Amino acid sequence: VFTAELRAKDDISQIDLYSLGSFTNYNWTKFFRLGFGYELFANNVKNHRIKWEHRMMIQSNIQHSVGRIKIGWRSSYMDTFYSFSDPNFGMRNRLKVDYSLPKNQIKQFVSTELYHKFDHGIGHQKNRYTGGIHYKFKAKQQLDFYYMIEDYSTKTFTRHVIGIGYSYTFL
To answer: Which tens digit of pLDDT belongs to each residue from 56-106?
Structure first.
């Protein structure tokens, strides 16, 4: 799977983050898959400078469908870093519910995700709450439009994010 994403700042005045990613998954069963991936982020920081960030991850997905509803749980162990000499290990867990609209290529979704850092023991970093739609416009291509709230446990603010994502599945 190849992914690309854009995220806008709170006031939507500029793009806050650009990302590219590549993931591979192995479907062990109909309900369980295991995979790994790499993401490259271009973070738009102060004075319109770009700060490059890397993320490598191993993740597992469990999902089950009932009618038009699909419920999924993803756990990811990751290393997010600006340079190879500065590892930042963490874990994130996401619960997601998709709803397929009848006779349509659009799926609505909501999710909640918990982030934990492993810097000095296990510490809670942030929660994410996301709602949006997936639009599958070709057999292997999909666009995502979403609104996300990031609630940081160590900061006194909450980020509001509007995002657009694209994915292409090779197999």
So the answer is: 999 999 999 999 999 999 999 999 998 878 888 999 999 999 999 888 889
Which tokens sit at 44? Answer: 């738009």
In contact, 40 and 69? CB cutoff 8 Å: no
Q: Is 29 exposed, middle or buried (0-12, 13-18, 19+ CB in 10 A)?
A: exposed
Please give the torsion angle defined by the CA atoms of residues 22, 25, 129 and 150, in that order, rounded to the nearest 10 degrees: -40
Q: Specify the length of the chain in residues.
A: 171
CA distance 148 to 127: 10
| Cα–Cα distance for residue pair 73/113, rounded to 1 Å | 10
